[in-house]
Amino acid sequence: MKSKSLLLAVTLLSIAAVLSIVSRELMPLPARLLFSMRWIAIGALFLQGFYRRTLTNWILIAMFTGAAIGHDWPGIAINLRVISLVFLRLIKTIIAPLLFATLVSGIAAHSDLKKVGRMGVKAIIYFEVVTTLALAIGLAAINISRAGVGASIPAASAETLPVQKMTFSETILHIFPENIARSVAEGQVLQVVVFSLLFGIALALVREERRRPLLNLTESLAETMFKFTNIVMYFAPLGVGAAIAYTVGSTGAGILLNLAKLLLTLYAALLVFVFGVLLPIAWLTRVPFRKFIAAVIEPVSIAFGTSSSEAALPRAMEAMERIGVPRPVVAFVMPAGYSFNLDGSTLYLSLASIFVAQAAGIHLSFGRQLLLVVTLMLTSKGVAGVSRAALVILLGTVGSFGLPTEPVFILLGIDQLMDMARTSVNVLGNCLATVVISRWEHDFQTGSEAPDL
Questions:
Q1: Distance of alpha carbon 441 from its chain centroid, rounded?
Q2: Can you tell me the distance from the alpha carbon of 202 to that of 29, in angstroms, rounded to the nearest whole number?
Q3: How many domains does one find in the chain?
Q4: How far apart are CA 90 and CA 349, in angstroms?
Q5: Rounded CA gap, 383 and 106, in Å?
Q6: Are residues 56 and 159 in the same domain?
Q7: What is the CATH number of the domain that holds 312?
Q8: What is the pLDDT of residue 449?
Q9: What pLDDT was estimated at residue 160?
Q10: Is 74 in the same domain as 103?
Q11: Whether residues 440 and 424 fall in one domain
C-alpha cells in the first residue's frame, strides 16, 4: 500500500506539472482543470504521507502544499508568514549554545597536547586543506551558475541585519567579541566561535580534575541542544510550508526554477570535488583504487539512501580495516573526520550562503565572500550528528553577514535531495582521509597483511 500511494502521488504530481508547462509554453488550458489537478495531486501526497510518516516526507508535502496555496490564494499565503517567523526564531535560539557546547567539548576532550601526536597533526592539516578546497569549489560553482539571481525575494520577506561597509581593520575587530553576552544576543556567530575556540583551548590546559566538571557541563549542553533541535524540527513542515506559501504568493512560482538550478549546481560541484580533489589525492598518495572503490560502495550507498553519515559509520570503519588500515588509525581518523572533515556539507554551505544573497539581490564583494568562507570553515566543525545541522549553521552564518534568513527555509523543500548527495561525499571523503593518513604513517597493510574481517 505504501508503494502504491507513493506511485499514485508521483504520477499525479507529474501530470499536474506537465499540464502547467503545456499551459504556459504551448497553449492555455482551463484554469479550473489546472487547479483541480494540483489539489488532487496534493491530496494524494497527504494520503501517502500517512503511510510514510517521516519528517522529510512531510517537509516535501508542506513544500508542495505551500507552493499551491501561494499560487492559488496569494492573499492568504502572505498572512502565513508569521508561522515561518516563529519557526525562524526557534531555530535562532539553537545556534549560539549549540556552537559553544560542541566546539568547547570537542576541543577540551580531544585536544590534550600531551596526547596529540604526529598522526593527529597530519589529520588536522589534511582536514583543513580538503574542506577549504570544498568551500572554494562551492563558492566558484554558485558564482558561475548564479542560481539565485532572478529569484526576487522581496526585502520585506526577510529579517535582515543592517549591512554596512567596513574597513579592513573594522572587519578584523568585528571577528573578536567585546562582550560575549552581546555577541550571543546580536547573533554574531563568528564572535561566538572565536570565544568558544579560546575557551576550549583554555579548558584543555586545565588539570583533569578541574576540567572534568566543565567538560561534563558542555557535553550535557551539547546533547540537550541536539534534542532541542530535534523537537524544533518537528515544526519544520509548518515553517517550510508557510515560507514557501508566502514566497510564491509574493514573488510568483519562478522561485521553484531557481531551486532546480541550485540542485543541479550542487550535484555538479560535488562531482567536480570528487574527481578534481579526492581522485588526485588518492592517486598522489597511491591509494589502492580498485580495493578502495569496492570497499566504499556499501557505506556510501547507505549514506545516500538514509541521508545519515552516522548510519554508514560502522560499515565504513569495518571496510577501511578490511582493506588494510590499522584499527588505531581508523578509530582515530574516522570519528575525528565526522567533526572536522565534512567535505560535502562544507561545499553545500558556501554554495547555499551565496544563493541566499543572490536570491535577495544583495551583492557580496570578493572580500566578504572570503570572510564568509572562513566563518563557514569554523562554524561547520563539531556538529556532525545534529538533525538538519546545515540549516542551523547556514542560518547563523547568513544572519551574521546581514543576509536575509527566510530564503533558507525555501531550501528545506529540496534539502533531502541535496542531503543525499552531500552526505555521500562526507562518507567518501572520510574513508579516503583514513587511508591517506595510514599511508602517510607507513602502516597501511597491503595484500595478505590486511586483516580478514
A1: 32
A2: 68
A3: 2
A4: 20
A5: 10
A6: no
A7: 1.10.3860.10
A8: 46
A9: 42
A10: no
A11: yes
Looking at residue 206, what is its pLDDT? 86
Report the distance separating Cα 371 and Cα 429, nearest Å.
24
- Report which secondary-structure segment, H or E, holds 424: helix 415-440
Task: Specify the pLDDT at position 276.
Answer: 94
**Final residue in a domain of this structure, among 63, 78, 93:** 78
Helices 309-322 and 327-340: crossing angle in degrees, nearest 10, is 150
pLDDT value of position 205: 83
Where among 52, 78, 104 does a domain terminate? 78
d(CA 391, CA 88): 11
The 10s digit of each residue's pLDDT in 425-446 is 988 999 999 999 888 877 777 6
d(CA 156, CA 154): 5
CA atoms of 438 and 432, how far apart (whole Å) = 10
Amino acid at 203: L
- Rounded Cα gap, residues 368 and 382, in angstroms: 24
Would you state the cell numbers that stand for residue 372, as one nine-digit string? Answer: 564568509
Distance CA 389, CA 98 (A): 10
Positions in the chain short of pLDDT 50: 112, 115-116, 155-166, 385, 387, 448-453
Q: Are residues 276 and 225 in the same domain?
A: yes
Contact partners, residue 150, CB within 8 Å, separation at least 6: 254, 258
Model pLDDT, residue 39: 80
Asked if 45 and 140 sit in the same domain, the reply is: no
Residues 56 and 139 in one domain: no
CA 204/CA 215 separation, integer angstroms: 9
Residues 6 or more apart from 184 whose CB is under 8 A from it?
Answer: 96, 192
DSSP 275: I
- Cell representation of residue 204: 584543555
What percent helix, strand, coil does the chain show, rounded to 5? Answer: 80, 0, 20
Q: What value, to the nearest 5°, has the Cα angle with vertex 53 and ends 3 and 81?
A: 120
How far are the Cα atoms of 93, 116, 337, 401, 412 from residue 184, in angstroms, in the given order? Answer: 10, 31, 28, 14, 25
For the full predicted model, state whether its pTM sits above 0.70. no
Q: Where are the alpha helices (DSSP H) in 111-207?
A: 118-145, 168-175, 180-186, 189-204
Full residue range of the structural domain in which residue 440 is found: 82-449
How much is the pLDDT for 280?
94
8 with 35, same domain: the answer is: yes
| Same-domain pairing of 11 and 127 | no
- Please state, in angstroms and rounded to a whole number, the distance separating the CA atoms of residues 134 and 432: 15
CB atoms closer than 10 angstroms to residue 452: 5
Any idea what DSSP says for residue 113? T
The candidate with the shortest Cα–Cα distance to 316, out of 331, 332, 295, is: 295
Cβ atoms 302, 315 nearer than 8 A: yes
Report the distance separating Cα 429 and Cα 317, nearest Å. 13
